[in-house]
Amino acid sequence: MIRAALFSILALLPRALTGQDNTAELLDRAAKYHADLDVERELVLLRQVISPSSPFVVTHDQRVQAYKYLGAALVVLGQTDSGIVYMRAALERDPFVDLEPQKFTPAELAAFAQAKRLTFGLGVRPIPFDTIDPRTERVHFTVMSTHSTALIVEVRAAGAPAGVMLFRGENDGPRELQWDGLMPNGR
Hints:
By secondary structure, this protein is an alpha+beta fold.
Protein backbone atom coordinates (compact mmCIF):
# COMPACT_ATOMS: atom_id res chain seq x y z
CA MET A 1 0.00 0.00 0.00
CA ILE A 2 2.76 2.47 0.95
CA ARG A 3 4.78 1.34 -2.04
CA ALA A 4 1.82 2.03 -4.41
CA ALA A 5 1.27 5.49 -2.88
CA LEU A 6 4.96 6.33 -3.16
CA PHE A 7 5.01 5.15 -6.78
CA SER A 8 1.95 7.33 -7.54
CA ILE A 9 3.62 10.39 -6.02
CA LEU A 10 6.87 9.77 -7.90
CA ALA A 11 4.96 9.27 -11.15
CA LEU A 12 3.31 12.69 -10.74
CA LEU A 13 6.50 14.48 -9.68
CA PRO A 14 7.96 15.05 -13.21
CA ARG A 15 4.66 16.60 -14.34
CA ALA A 16 4.62 18.88 -11.31
CA LEU A 17 8.21 19.94 -11.96
CA THR A 18 7.62 20.63 -15.65
CA GLY A 19 4.46 22.54 -14.74
CA GLN A 20 6.57 25.14 -13.01
CA ASP A 21 7.02 28.14 -15.25
CA ASN A 22 8.95 31.33 -15.33
CA THR A 23 8.24 34.59 -17.09
CA ALA A 24 10.33 33.77 -20.17
CA GLU A 25 8.45 30.50 -20.67
CA LEU A 26 5.09 32.24 -20.25
CA LEU A 27 6.04 34.86 -22.84
CA ASP A 28 7.30 32.20 -25.26
CA ARG A 29 4.03 30.28 -24.95
CA ALA A 30 2.01 33.49 -25.33
CA ALA A 31 3.92 34.31 -28.55
CA LYS A 32 3.18 30.81 -29.87
CA TYR A 33 -0.50 31.20 -29.01
CA HIS A 34 -0.46 34.56 -30.82
CA ALA A 35 1.02 32.96 -33.93
CA ASP A 36 -1.67 30.25 -33.76
CA LEU A 37 -4.39 32.91 -33.21
CA ASP A 38 -5.29 31.28 -29.88
CA VAL A 39 -5.82 34.71 -28.36
CA GLU A 40 -7.86 33.60 -25.35
CA ARG A 41 -5.00 31.41 -24.04
CA GLU A 42 -2.51 34.13 -24.91
CA LEU A 43 -4.41 36.70 -22.85
CA VAL A 44 -4.46 34.45 -19.77
CA LEU A 45 -0.67 34.10 -19.86
CA LEU A 46 0.02 37.77 -20.57
CA ARG A 47 -2.28 38.94 -17.79
CA GLN A 48 -0.44 36.60 -15.45
CA VAL A 49 2.87 38.18 -16.47
CA ILE A 50 1.75 41.78 -15.86
CA SER A 51 -0.19 40.98 -12.69
CA PRO A 52 1.26 42.50 -9.50
CA SER A 53 0.64 39.12 -7.87
CA SER A 54 2.72 37.21 -10.42
CA PRO A 55 4.86 34.62 -8.61
CA PHE A 56 7.71 35.23 -11.08
CA VAL A 57 10.24 38.01 -11.48
CA VAL A 58 9.36 40.16 -14.49
CA THR A 59 12.18 42.19 -16.02
CA HIS A 60 11.67 45.54 -17.69
CA ASP A 61 12.11 44.01 -21.17
CA GLN A 62 9.68 41.18 -20.37
CA ARG A 63 7.04 43.67 -19.21
CA VAL A 64 7.49 45.61 -22.46
CA GLN A 65 7.07 42.41 -24.48
CA ALA A 66 3.97 41.45 -22.48
CA TYR A 67 2.36 44.86 -23.08
CA LYS A 68 3.20 44.66 -26.79
CA TYR A 69 1.60 41.23 -27.23
CA LEU A 70 -1.33 42.09 -24.95
CA GLY A 71 -2.08 45.12 -27.09
CA ALA A 72 -1.86 43.08 -30.27
CA ALA A 73 -4.11 40.34 -28.85
CA LEU A 74 -6.77 42.87 -27.91
CA VAL A 75 -6.66 44.29 -31.44
CA VAL A 76 -7.27 40.78 -32.80
CA LEU A 77 -10.32 40.54 -30.52
CA GLY A 78 -11.66 43.82 -31.92
CA GLN A 79 -10.79 45.84 -28.83
CA THR A 80 -8.53 48.24 -30.69
CA ASP A 81 -8.75 51.12 -28.21
CA SER A 82 -7.69 48.86 -25.33
CA GLY A 83 -4.98 47.37 -27.51
CA ILE A 84 -3.58 50.82 -28.24
CA VAL A 85 -3.45 51.56 -24.49
CA TYR A 86 -1.22 48.53 -23.91
CA MET A 87 0.90 49.30 -26.96
CA ARG A 88 1.40 52.81 -25.61
CA ALA A 89 2.46 51.32 -22.27
CA ALA A 90 5.11 49.31 -24.13
CA LEU A 91 6.32 52.40 -26.03
CA GLU A 92 6.41 54.52 -22.87
CA ARG A 93 8.74 51.96 -21.29
CA ASP A 94 10.85 51.37 -24.40
CA PRO A 95 10.64 53.71 -27.40
CA PHE A 96 12.64 51.14 -29.41
CA VAL A 97 9.86 48.52 -29.25
CA ASP A 98 8.36 47.62 -32.60
CA LEU A 99 6.07 45.05 -34.19
CA GLU A 100 7.62 42.68 -36.70
CA PRO A 101 5.51 42.76 -39.90
CA GLN A 102 5.96 39.00 -40.45
CA LYS A 103 4.46 38.21 -37.00
CA PHE A 104 1.60 40.70 -36.78
CA THR A 105 -1.47 41.44 -38.88
CA PRO A 106 -2.07 44.69 -40.77
CA ALA A 107 -4.70 45.64 -38.16
CA GLU A 108 -2.18 45.15 -35.34
CA LEU A 109 0.45 47.14 -37.23
CA ALA A 110 -2.05 49.97 -37.84
CA ALA A 111 -2.98 50.07 -34.16
CA PHE A 112 0.69 50.15 -33.22
CA ALA A 113 1.27 53.04 -35.65
CA GLN A 114 -1.62 54.87 -33.94
CA ALA A 115 -0.06 54.15 -30.52
CA LYS A 116 3.23 55.62 -31.77
CA ARG A 117 1.46 58.76 -33.00
CA LEU A 118 -0.10 59.19 -29.54
CA THR A 119 3.07 58.52 -27.53
CA PHE A 120 6.17 60.66 -27.35
CA GLY A 121 9.17 58.62 -26.35
CA LEU A 122 12.85 59.40 -26.23
CA GLY A 123 15.50 56.87 -25.38
CA VAL A 124 19.09 55.77 -25.64
CA ARG A 125 20.03 52.13 -25.96
CA PRO A 126 22.14 51.03 -23.01
CA ILE A 127 25.83 51.19 -23.79
CA PRO A 128 27.62 48.05 -22.63
CA PHE A 129 30.74 48.48 -20.53
CA ASP A 130 34.00 48.65 -22.54
CA THR A 131 32.39 49.22 -25.92
CA ILE A 132 35.02 51.29 -27.69
CA ASP A 133 35.48 49.79 -31.13
CA PRO A 134 39.25 49.16 -31.38
CA ARG A 135 39.22 49.68 -35.17
CA THR A 136 37.69 53.15 -35.03
CA GLU A 137 38.42 54.06 -31.39
CA ARG A 138 34.82 55.20 -31.05
CA VAL A 139 31.79 54.32 -28.93
CA HIS A 140 28.69 53.65 -31.02
CA PHE A 141 25.19 54.05 -29.64
CA THR A 142 21.66 54.72 -30.78
CA VAL A 143 19.18 57.38 -29.69
CA MET A 144 15.51 57.23 -30.59
CA SER A 145 12.56 59.58 -30.72
CA THR A 146 9.09 58.37 -31.63
CA HIS A 147 8.18 61.78 -33.09
CA SER A 148 9.95 64.58 -34.87
CA THR A 149 11.71 66.64 -32.25
CA ALA A 150 14.53 69.09 -31.74
CA LEU A 151 17.16 66.86 -30.18
CA ILE A 152 20.40 67.68 -28.42
CA VAL A 153 22.72 64.83 -27.46
CA GLU A 154 25.62 65.80 -25.24
CA VAL A 155 28.05 63.72 -23.20
CA ARG A 156 29.29 65.29 -20.00
CA ALA A 157 30.72 64.21 -16.70
CA ALA A 158 28.30 64.25 -13.78
CA GLY A 159 28.09 67.78 -12.42
CA ALA A 160 30.13 69.26 -15.28
CA PRO A 161 28.75 72.49 -16.75
CA ALA A 162 29.71 71.55 -20.32
CA GLY A 163 30.42 68.45 -22.33
CA VAL A 164 30.85 67.19 -25.86
CA MET A 165 28.03 67.94 -28.31
CA LEU A 166 27.33 64.81 -30.36
CA PHE A 167 24.16 65.90 -32.14
CA ARG A 168 21.95 68.96 -32.43
CA GLY A 169 19.07 69.07 -34.85
CA GLU A 170 15.77 67.54 -35.90
CA ASN A 171 15.29 63.85 -35.24
CA ASP A 172 12.52 61.38 -35.95
CA GLY A 173 13.19 57.70 -35.32
CA PRO A 174 16.49 56.02 -34.53
CA ARG A 175 19.80 57.83 -34.98
CA GLU A 176 23.22 56.19 -34.80
CA LEU A 177 25.87 58.27 -33.04
CA GLN A 178 29.52 57.78 -32.21
CA TRP A 179 31.90 59.37 -29.74
CA ASP A 180 35.68 59.15 -29.48
CA GLY A 181 35.54 58.93 -25.68
CA LEU A 182 37.29 62.26 -25.12
CA MET A 183 35.93 65.19 -23.16
CA PRO A 184 36.60 68.83 -24.24
CA ASN A 185 39.78 68.91 -22.13
CA GLY A 186 41.17 65.93 -24.10
CA ARG A 187 40.81 63.48 -21.23
